[in-house]
Structures are given as structure tokens and as C-alpha cells.
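Lab notebook page, bench 4
Experiment: in silico fold of construct C2
Operator: M.H.
Input chain length: 329 residues
Purpose: comparison with the prior construct
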Amino acid sequence: MTSRRHHLPVMAAEVTALLAAAPQGVVIDATLGGGGHSAALLEASNRHRVVGIDRDPSALQEAGSRLAPFGARARIVKARFDELAAVISAEAPGEPVAGVLFDLGVSSWQLDEADRGFSYRFEGPLDMRMDPDEPLSAFEVVNSWPAEELAALFARNGESRFARRIARGIEAARPIETTTALAETVRAALPGPARRGGGHPAKRVFQAIRIAVNEEDRQLPAALHDALRVLSPGGRLVVIAYHSGEDRAVKSILAGAATGWCTCPPGLPCVCGAEPLVSLLNRGARLPSAGEVAANPRAASARLRAAERLQAAWREPSGRNEGGSHGRS
């Protein structure tokens, strides 16, 4: 079996260049995974140290081995990414925060471990929990959520055309106990033409269930706001998203921060007193190169957005719900 150490961090060169150019200070790797991005940054820059956070014990173990050669320059903490403000207070009190990185989604080695239940490619239990101590698993979502709730979940995550058909198919097939059984149920629920194009028909369904199990859509907006707030002037936020819902949330929050959460009508001069809080570092989302996609096909859906914190005093957005989730209540 391929070693998990062969996992390739997505857009590592772009991430490293963006964060290495930030002022001296601590960089928070809010989705540490196997530690690939952190290792690349620490190798490229001696002006930074990294605090990496992750809630997956296997990821923490893997990253610990990978980052051990950097000694005190790398610190690892078990936490969710929406707890980053508390992690910074505990691990870097008073230290300038030079950068925050979010690489959303699932690591290659997590997908390749059948017993984690993340992938439709291998038979395994319906789990999908990043933190195995959390109570909600994919089994409960698949087998206990009403069809209407499942359909809404799938629609929010890109499967809008056949969301109801898939949800009704899952409800009719219960109990569903394995990843392969779920994948086949999704396939059977679709009309023939939809089964044959656009990749595996269960891809978006598995992604949606994983996001629900781990409450990623609920946690992301709060985490992004906190990341922007704690950055020092000149500090940089870098986010890699892998599906349209996540990318829309990132885009919305960065666009709002770039106006200082201006509430004035579009196209009219600002009279609300808002000042830009960040400068966007690229127009639109950056995509992985063709060479990277050829070497690592899982990078194909990656979208990178980045912003730099300005000198303006932090201002909270009205309602603080830009890019917010529409998760299960």
C-alpha cells in the first residue's frame, strides 16, 4: 500500500509563496492534515513558525512525524478550525499572526482508508467523522434523516437536479450500512444518462454527507471571520476550497471584508464609514496548474483565494452572517 507520506499537498507552491511573503510571526495551519503545507512553508521561510490544528487523531499523528524535524518551530494542537482564536490565545499569546491557512476537504490518505468511510471507491462503514469521538456519523445521516432534509442537503452541495430522487432512493433502501451500498443506491436512483457522465454519480452526495457529519458548513464562516480578525497588518489568509458552496462562502466573506462590510447600495459612494479591512491578493480564484492536475487528479477541483490584512481597525459585519451556512437546525 502507498504510504500516507506520499500525500501531495494541493497547490503547495502557491500557498508557500503567499505565506512566506507575510511578515514575521506565527502561521496557523487551521486544517493541518498530514502537515504537507506546513512543512513546505517551514522549509522555505525561517521567519515563521507554525501552529497546526486538526481534529483527526490520525492526521495529528501523521503531521507530528512529518514536522518533527522542525522542532519548536512546529506546534500541533487537537481542535476544530472554528476554535482557532482560542488556540492562538493559548499557543501564541501576543505574537503577531502572520498567516492563516485553510485547505478544506479530505486528505488523500483519509479517502484511501476504507474504514474511515469517506470514499465511494472502497467498501467500508458509513462513518465519515474527522474526529471519531464525535457522536454523529454518516450512518445516522443516511438512515435517520427525513428524505426532505436529505434532499435539501444534497441540493445545497451541488446535486440540485436529482436531489429529491436520490433522497427518496436512500429512504426506500434503508437500512444502508456500507459506502458501496450507498454509492450503488445513489447510482440506481438516477436516470440512465446521468449515470454515465460527469464522474461518479455519488461524488457530490458523499461530499454533502461528510460536510453535514463534520458540520463544516456551520464552522467555516465563523472560522474565516476569526482568522481575518486575528491577522496582524500584512498578515495573509489563504483558503483552498473544493466545491462551489465552500468557495462561495469564502468569496462572499473576503469580498465583504475588502469593503469593510460596507452597507451602502452598490454603485453609490460609501457613506456608512466603512474602511477596507483586507486587500484581495488575486482576482477571482486561482486554479492548480495543468501539470499539478496531471500529477494529482484530486487537485482538479481546487480553488484558491487569498487576502492580506490592512491597517484599518477591525470592524464586525452587521449580523455576522456573510457566507453563512444553511445547515441542519
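Observations: The chain has a mean pLDDT of 91. The chain has two domains: 4-104+216-320, 125-213.
Next step: discuss at group meeting.
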